[in-house]
Every structure is written in C-alpha cells, then in structure tokens.
Amino acid sequence: MSTEPHLSADRAAALPLPPMAWNAWGDPALAVSLSDDVSSLLRTLLEITPGETGEPGEPRVGGAPARAEDAVLVPSRLSGVHLKALSAIVGEEYVSVRDGDRLPRAGGKSTLDLLRRRSAEPQDAPDGVVVPGTEEEIAAVLELCAQQRIAVVPFGGGTSVVGGLDPVRGAFAAVLSLDLRRFDALLSLDEVSGEAVLGAGLTGPRAEELLAERGFELGHYPQSFRFATIGGFAATRSSGQDSAGFGRFDDMVRGLRVITPAGVLDLGRGPASAAGPDLRQLFLGSEGVLGIITAVRLRVHPVPAVKRYEAWTFPDFETGAAALRAAEQQGTGPTVLRLSDETETAVNLAMTAKIGAPQEVSGCLAVTVFEGAEETTTARHELTRAVLLAHGGTSLGEDPARGWEHGRFGAPYLRDALLDHGALCETLETATGWSNLARLKSAVTTALQGALQATGSTSLVMCHISHVYETGASLYFTVVAAQRGDAIEQWQAAKRAASDAIMANGGTITHHHAVGTDHRPWMEQEIGELGAAVLRAVKGAVDPVGILNPGKLIP
Amino acid sequence: MSTEPHLSADRAAALPLPPMAWNAWGDPALAVSLSDDVSSLLRTLLEITPGETGEPGEPRVGGAPARAEDAVLVPSRLSGVHLKALSAIVGEEYVSVRDGDRLPRAGGKSTLDLLRRRSAEPQDAPDGVVVPGTEEEIAAVLELCAQQRIAVVPFGGGTSVVGGLDPVRGAFAAVLSLDLRRFDALLSLDEVSGEAVLGAGLTGPRAEELLAERGFELGHYPQSFRFATIGGFAATRSSGQDSAGFGRFDDMVRGLRVITPAGVLDLGRGPASAAGPDLRQLFLGSEGVLGIITAVRLRVHPVPAVKRYEAWTFPDFETGAAALRAAEQQGTGPTVLRLSDETETAVNLAMTAKIGAPQEVSGCLAVTVFEGAEETTTARHELTRAVLLAHGGTSLGEDPARGWEHGRFGAPYLRDALLDHGALCETLETATGWSNLARLKSAVTTALQGALQATGSTSLVMCHISHVYETGASLYFTVVAAQRGDAIEQWQAAKRAASDAIMANGGTITHHHAVGTDHRPWMEQEIGELGAAVLRAVKGAVDPVGILNPGKLIP
Lengths: 555, 555
Description:
The structure is a homodimer of 555-residue chains. Chain A is an alpha+beta fold and 555 residues long. Chain A has 18 helices and 18 strands. In chain A, a hairpin with a 6-residue loop joins strand 17 and strand 18 (472-482). Chain A is globular and about 70 Å long.
C-alpha cells in the first residue's frame, strides 16, 4: 500500500461524483430536447434559429467539450506535502487532486456557470477535493488550511446559481473543495416534538426517504430539491415551493452544528428563546463563509394524509396578486400558492411538458395545493376557495395544478437545451411588500428588456409569484433572449441592470437564491456599510485567517 | 434664561415620569390588597402571617420609604461639564440629574428590583437621565458618552424583570439612562402590505390606539403590555399572550432602525430574504447592548371582526399538554392557547380576581381564544374543539376564558402586595421540546422547592404552558414562599437552582424575559464559548468603547 500520495494528472475521478452533471443541470438521463413549440417560439419571437440537431446536450457554442474527460483544467496548485497532510487527516481515499474530481466541483449551475462549462478555454476548478467523514476531521482540515493558507469551499449538492461554489482563492495560494456527502445520516428523530437532526450532506430526496420510513416529512421542495443538501438549504436560506404551508427552510431550523476554524458552535435550545440575539440566524445564510454546517435540527411533520389540488385563473396579474394577498393575510393556509403573470401563463411555463405550446389558459394561472390531515386540509381548501372566488378567480379544477407539480423540478433541464441552441436563459428573484409588488415587477422587467435590447436581443421576460407572506411576496423572473456576442458579458449586463432596479425599487437582492459572488456587489446596499462591518467582525471571530469561501457574500 | 446647567439635589422630577411606579409594578391606583382567600392560603400553606394593615403598598419590611421623595439615592457622578454637553445636544429641558428623575429609572420590576426598592439603604440609580428627541441627538449623545466614558442604559417602559436596566457602570465613571419616550409616533402604515413603522418609545396601549384609529392591530400582549414599549419588545424578544396566533414579537418584525456608536443600521428589505445572515436577529434580543432601537417595522393585521372564547379542563397536566401539542401540530390556529397545571389551577391563578379562592375548576384549566374574520375564526375554533375533545378535554364554556382575559395583566400587582406582607413571590420561564416538557417541569419544580426549603421556606410552585410551538412549549413558573432572612439572597439561591436545573435539563435560560444581568451567568452554557465570542465581536464592531448597557447579556 502506498503511503506517499502522489499528484496525479489522472483524468478519471477517484472520489464519488457529485449528484449533478458537470456541465448541465441535474441528471444527464433527464436532459430534454427543444420541442417544436419551443423552437417555433424562439424563431418567431426572439429571432433564434435553434441548432439543427436538437439532440439533448449537444453544444452549439464552438469547440466546447461535451465529455468531462475532454475538458481542460487549470493545473492543481496543491503540493504533495498538502496532499500528504490531508490524507493523514481524512485517509488517502478521501482526498484527490484528479481532474475528474475537481471538474464536477468547479462551480454551481447558474447560467454563467453553464456558459463557462461550455467554453473551450481551460476551466478553473478547486485545486483539490477532500471528503471528510467526521466533525473532528473537518476541524483538522480547517486547522491545516489555516496554517497552510488554503481557501476552503464547502460543497453539498453543487446547485448554487449565484457563484457560491466558484473556486475563488482570495489571498491564498490554493482552494480546496470540502465535500460534505459523508454527513448523510438521519441522526435522530423526536416523533413527539416533531424534530429531526439531519446530516448536512443528505440530499433532499434522501432526507425525505429516511424520514418517510418513520412516517415523517420535512416538506422542503425548492427546484433544486433532487440534488441540493440539508446543509446547503441552511447555508443559503433556501425557500421551497411548499413554503407557504411548511415555511421557509430557515423557519424550520431549530438548531445547527457548525465547525469553524475557531471552534464548534452548537446553537438552538428549545422551540423559541429570548436568550439574546439569535445566533442561528448568523449561520443560516452564511454560505460557507462563517463555518461548515454539519447537522441541522429541523421541524418535521407527519406525512400528510391527504393532498388536494386546485388551479385558478385570474383576468390579470394585479387581480391575481390581490387574491393571493387576501388568501395569505386571512390565513387560509394553502401549502402551495403561486401565480404566473400573463406572459408566463401564455408560454405555459408553469407546466414543463407543455412549455411553448399554444396556451390553454388565458389570463394568469394560479396553483394551490393543500396537504395535511383530512379535516384541516378540507377546511383550509374551502377557506382559500372562498377568498379566491371573492377576488375574481375562476377555478380550473385539479389538472393544471397536478400538471404544475408533475413538472416542477423540470424547468432547469430546458435551460440547458436552450443554452445549447443559442438562447440565453436565466432566472432571478426578489421580494417586496404587497403594496410595492407591481412597481418592482415593472422596474425589473423594463431593466432586463432594456439591457438585453442594448445587446441586440429581444427578450421574453416572464414572472411569477413563487412565495407569499402576510406582508409581501417574491417575484421570480425567467428571461429568454438570443445569445449575442459574448453571452457571459451579455447576461452580466442584464443581471446588473436587474439588480440595480431591484435595489432602487425596494426589493431584496435575493429572496431565495443567496448571495455568492453574483449578488455580492449589492450587499452593501442591502445591509448598509455598518451591516457589512458587523459581518466582517463575525467572520474575524470564527475564521481569523479568512480561509472559508473567500470572495462570497461579505462585501 | 440660564445657559449654565447646574447640578441639583432637587428631589422633584423635572422630566416626564416613566409609566410605572418607582417602587412597585404598574399604576399605583391599581394596587391591590391581599384578599382573605390569599391571606388564608399564605397562613395555612406557607406559614406566612400577612401584615395587619393589608393596605395597598404598605411596606412590611422595616424602615423603607413608601414615597419617592423620601428615598435616599447614591449621588450622581455626572459633572457640570457633562450636563452642559448633554444639554447642548438635547436641550436643557431634556436632561436631568435630579433624584426625582433618576429614581424611577433605577431598575426594572423583578422581585429583586422590588426588594431593593423596599430597602431603607441608599438606592443605586443612573447618574443622570437624557430624553433625546431625534436619531441625530441619540448619535451625538453616544458620541459624547464614548468620549467621556459614560455608560448608557436605554430605557423604555421600565418593565424588565431580569435586571436589564440596572445602573451598571462597568469600566466607566458614570451611567446615563437614555429614555426613548419621545420616539412615540406611528411613522407610517402600509395598509396593503399590513406593515406599520412604530417609534421605539410607544407603549403597547398607545401603539394599539394609533393603529386602531386606522383599523389595524399589532396584537402583542405580554403581561407588561400596558407599560412596555415597542423598542423594549424588540430588544428583549418579547412574547405575548396572543403569540400562538399572531406570533412572537420577533416574528412580527420586518425591519429595524438602530443607532450605534459606530453608525446607523437600517435592516430588513422585503418580507423575506436570502441575502446572507439575518442581521435583524442580532439586534432583536440585543437588550441595549448593541445599539439603540429607534423604530421598528412590524407586521400588523386588521382589527379582528370576531373573538371567541372557550375554556377547557383536562384531568391532568400530561393529558392537557398532549392536547395542546396536538392542536398546535395540526395547525388548528387558536390566537391564545394556554394550560395551567394542577397547582396553578387549584390556586385559581389564571383568574386574578379569584386567586386563592376555593377552586371552581378541578384538574388543569386551559384557555383558548380565537380572533379574526368570522369565517376563518369559526373554522379554527371548530378544528381546535375537535382536537381538544379527542384528547380528553372537557369544555367549560366561555366564562373562565373571559375571566382569564379580564385579569391577564393583573398578577404583578398581587406580587407587590405579597412582597409587602412577607411573602417572596416571583416568576421564571423556559421552553423546551414537547418530548422533554414533563422532565424539565419536574426538574425546575424540584430545584425551586429544594432551594427554598434550604432557606427554611415551604414553597408553592405553580406552572403553566404560556406559549406553544409546533415543536415545543414554554413553561412559566410562579413561586410563592415565606421571606426568611435576607429575601434577596433567598431568591437568588432559588433562582440559581432553577437556572442550573433548566440548563441541565435541556431548557433555554429564558423563553421571553430576556437575559439582562440575572441570566447572564448562564449565557455561555446557552450559546457556548464561541457563541459568546461572536457576540463580543459584534459588540466590538458597533460599540468599540463598550458604553452600551455594560454588564448585561454578553457573558
């Protein structure tokens, strides 16, 4: 047995692969082609002529490798000494500098990430990957990295869409990806209190599987659900499609374990507390910058006995938004409550299978789902019906709501096909008070269209209310336009315009995608100069050398 | 007109008085006598012979002054130079070193505070009082105090029961009470979003009055409601009697303005955000240690159209707690949901007017109240009824629930009468998961009784579930025993034993009373050594000289 780890240019991976494809969203087996409807839409509306083959995953951008084995990576900057030291901590089999391990952890899945992966240029990537199995190993890795001045990027499901996983080295010589996949246990379940302690590396489906064996559900279903992890949900303040009913992920968190270079934090006593500032709320949304989350204590509920669906149409977005507001403010309690605007409804974006097909629903489509015990579910459904009817809604019955649910994790696959065929496609989101919703929606739409027009592209800007609160709602925008010139620069310009519009019009820079590198330039506007100084002070206390995820979040 | 402020030993107050009596809870006009029932209870159960007069406010402890004018204060340590500088900032009429202004701001209303006020010894008190009118004035006062090394204690309603207002000087020469009463406006109301911006100095009733004029309600009703302020609710993470329905105060907060020695924070964009750590959660519960809260943006709701009451009895606490758990976990939605244990029920403590009277309700009394629109309120009431019936509850109809509501702010007045007549009386509270509730309740009860027994007192320890959550509940203890020896030391010993039991048995050191000086020794157990270091780092960023409320909260 070799005791001397050696640097290897071996392309093949030696570690288990992350759950998502290296150069596209999700599972390659689920990649989609552009339907005739979508191709037609692109041609007529956006002046894009989709590539001829139309094969899934077939790249249009010249020369880029379709296979991981063919991708060119910048060489690893880790030395044999580093590798040996890391191996001594986690075991040789859990550390790698192979290209095959580095490449799938080179970034997240934003359109910028995917465009970079589609480039024929050498790809930047972490200089190595470590897969620790215990908190003690994490602490030792952090200690080593602080000594050796190596940056550390925690890695969960790899689904970041804000550059949260970019291999930024900051002031350091090298950057290490720390994969949490081995923190994959249901550590405990308190059936009476309805609390589960889940390992940070558990994916959404695996967490639900383990809970379901005991009759419980977490109920957190963001679009990244199939791949993202419990630790990632916590580190990014994720919000799911069922959050109207079960709450945002941060609402569900009762406790957190966090390993930092300065020690361990075990936060959260009791269901609620007045014992000073809520420090959990510093580490929720900390995006790997303040520590490595290893386990999360979460509120869970019994698997719902019944599930009811009802779709609705409203004559226009304003009427629909007022109806959603009334339902939420009156506490009628749907699990899912969403509303597409006229454009999104027309494109059928809510139902992946039918995207681009001639519209079946006019006006604005809303979806409601109710889950729980028979009695409470029926009561909540009836109350919601009454409010939506009173506010101008027309019921479309169950089918369109079931159709939405069926396709709800599918949209990102279409983005890959669009990118491959010359379209620019991306989403962004914000939130504001109900009274400011129309103004913010209009400002962001105008900003996006104007910025893309300036690059020579007509754009299709669609929007839906993805999450509702008593005092306001989120706005989730989907943009499709023709790629013109450097698509990366093109999207960066559009994103800059949209972000400036969000800040100038009272929105938050991100409602559920987190900050990463992409939203960082707007963070000082979001929290103020002193707010940024407070974050830096916290960072100094837990990570004095600054190795944790440099270049992210903190302005 | 004199431009030279002069130190004055004048006893009379020159500033508007705080809302509460200097030496007792609340409004002197509402002071109560001990009823025959209570006197009998004290005699037979606790071996206390109440004083003969039984007059409200008549002190039993030897020699203590009943009138503020007769109290002896330690002299003010502020100089004429300080006073002149403060006057230059806020105006001469808004600064005072008179005993009459210092004494009513000498502390809060814990039993320890009230025992200290009842002492004939010289009273410690802040060295001066300043009543700024603008944020700019607050900033200038903080700048001056940092330069001159004067500690600053923010003052709202003066209702702290954890020593949060103690005039601790720390490393400084003097301490200034900064009274926020002039921040008393409803700054804005967004009726569509259901958000109000309220000045930090508004008392509970005044805030509700201003909102009611516009048809809205905040719905935060802690026992301190009549005197405590919006800023105080935020700074202490207050929880109210209607929090089951309307949420804890921290749940209601959408935004905060905070003036610190390092600058101003304006936190909170949108109804929810994923823009990194939630910094509002650092200043909620910050107890004046991290900044002066001047305004709070809060979720408000239309004044409920209907209100329904129903009281219940359960054969025992365990059965009742299981029923409350089921109601909360099934989301049946009462506004108020509480349960007294057997002892508290027997003493009729839930209904102030009848405390100590022969019991009318056996077993354990529960109270439910429902508020909202006609339709949703009826639905929630019916769902709750069904769950409570299924879990062994027997309805007692409306009256006992109305009786509870009628007396719900009254209990602290009884404490004053008890203290005056030789009884020790205090409350404390914690929270834990449902599965741990019985164990924690038993451990705290045993600890309290044991510690008081060691001082020679039989004690009556009563408990109720004051707040419910899906994953757990709070436990609110009321203790009555005979004063033996030094009552202050006696209670400190009991409190220490209870706090140790809370920490050893999985509770939080405080569910809604905050930390102050009294819970500070347990904070490192609550948040860990590194958690404490994080708080100190934040403190360093916003208050580098450390003038803000020294000796509180941060261990």
